[in-house]
Design a protein that fits this description.
Layout (H helix, E strand, L loop, with lengths): L15 E6 L3 H12 L4 E4 L8 H4 L20 H6 L9 H14 L6 E2 L4 E7 L4 E6 L4 E9 L21 E4 L14 E5 L3 H13 L2 E6 L5 E3 L7 H9 L1 H10 L18 H13 L17 H18 L3 H6 L13 E3 L2 H4 L5 E5 L5 E4 L3 E4 L3 E3 L2 E4 L8 H4 L2 E3 L6 H4 L18 E3 L12 H21 L5 E3 L1 H16 L29 H16 L2 E3 L1
Parallel strand pairs: 1-2, 1-6, 2-3, 4-17, 6-18, 7-16, 8-9, 8-16, 9-12, 10-11
Antiparallel strand pairs: 4-5, 5-6, 13-14, 14-15, 19-20
Helix pairs in contact: 1-14, 14-16
The protein binds 3-acetylpyridine adenine dinucleotide (N01).
Keywords: FAD, Flavoprotein, Monooxygenase, NADP, Oxidoreductase
Family: Belongs to the FAD-binding monooxygenase family.
Cofactor: FAD
Length: 542
Amino acid sequence: MHTAPRPPSPSAAPQLDAVIVGAGFSGLYQLYRLRALGLRTRVLEACDNIGGTWYRNRYPGARCDVESTAYSFSFSPELDQEWEWSERYATQPELLRYLHHVADRFDLRKDITLRTRVTGAVYDEGGHTWQVTTDTGETVITRFVVLATGCMSAVKEPDIPGAGTFAGRALHTADWPHEDVDLTGRRVAVIGTGCSGIQAIPLLAEQAAELTVFQRTPVYALPARNRPLSAAETAELKARYPEFRAAQRRSKGGTLFEPPTRSALEVDEAERRAAYEEGWDSGVLSGLLRTYTDILVDRAANETVAEFVRSKIRSIVTDPETAETLSPRTFPFGTKRPCLDTGYYATYNKPHVSVVDLTKTPIVEITPRGIRTSDREHAVDVIAFATGFDALTGSQVAMDIVGKGGTTLREKWADGPRNHLGLLSAGFPNLFTVIGPLSPSVLSNAVVAIEQHVEWITDCIAHLRRNGITEIDATPRAEADWCAHVADLAAQTLYPSVDSWYMGANVPGKPRVFLAYTGGLERYRAECDAAAEGGYRAFALS
Ligand code: N01
């Protein structure tokens, strides 16, 4: 826990117009936009380098599961034309190279300060400024703060007794070493089978002498069907990039597909199976979700696709008992984020790879030698934790953010995040969030969602400055309405029925609130635009 920041000196003049916290996709684009407005802007980044998620998640196999050509900035046609993606799904190193290219091309680095973690921010109600404090001892006074801290940046430390006693090497997928980790001849354990675990497992298995996966909940994973992009494909895409980008911006989730029109239950089994085969073969994360209208709202409809995936697992994994262990049965398909994999299930056919079903033999403790489950001790040399994140709110409540009346964001969000449009939380004026809680964020292509937020925030700040307005705040009424609306929409789906990180259920003590907006990016964009109409009259301005 950081020490609480000191109250600001009375109404000190701002040294900066904007501080942006984080130098990932969000922070880089926000810097580009605010600088174009002529604002004195600085990005403060905790890590040694830029890249955010794509800097930290360097584990073997880390790869985006949205197609590279769609998971990239749309704001610069020149950038679209000059950058070449090598594969359908970009690896982490390629995404990081892309972000470095963006930083260089738009000359962003000069306003980014690395190795500087924002520890707190206190609002000065008299001066309408924020006093931002850092772990380097710096204090910066700024009019606006943009939290570009990402959805998945607060790593969830393994809540397992004895975690610190392990005498071998402990790694976390979200904090993998920069240098190569040689696992040749080593006995490796992986704890966790979410998207990170299932991407890492096939590659770790290529090196390890023995790989043991400790699985608490199996996932539904679809084959990525990744492949190199040919020169002809790239040329064809570049020719139609302008239309593609425009369509992305109008889309429901930032990727393009024909929305389904029928229920899974109104077609016969043969037709359903054919649709699911097509979705499975598409190599697209939402390939199965988009088949029928009711996959995420009707349990019986959902079960048809869930059983389809289980049948695929049985067809790939040769040992029937292992196939059953890997088959999700406790939650509907899609209510925890599905994964795209490359060879995940087939990895279990290798003789040196095994899975421990923690629902039958739970982990009791980590020991100096390895992992003790209820039936035995598994001696290993390396433990790779793939145990996930305190998603969406974790990075924000980790900072001591003190708003009006001395209220902290942590206190205000004790029962779950509260804000208007996911953008501003009442009592914390001039403090914007990019793809944070109660916005489409993790349910959409993150880059498209980021661009929508950054552009809205930029337009808002431009309006305030043009009109001599020094403070914008969410009203408690608008905030209450938005929180209720987000919860109402989520309640119409199967999502809240499941313990997932979407619900905050993976972090002990975190309130159970559905953390994202399920109405889709298109509808959300319209809500944000409506709130900006008439000079942002949905907000309190002064
Ligand atoms: O984390 P997760 P992640 N003992 O929370 C298990 C994005 N992402 O890093 O489900 C034993 O999904 C936990 O088990 P359970 C994407 O949005 C994207 O994999 O709680 N097990 C689960 O199996 C994704 O959804 C990409 O029962 C424990 C796993 O650890 C999000 O990030 C790639 C445990 C955590 O899974 C998070 O994914 C990677 C314990 N004490 C990530 N604690 C791409 O774009 C936790 N677990 C491809």
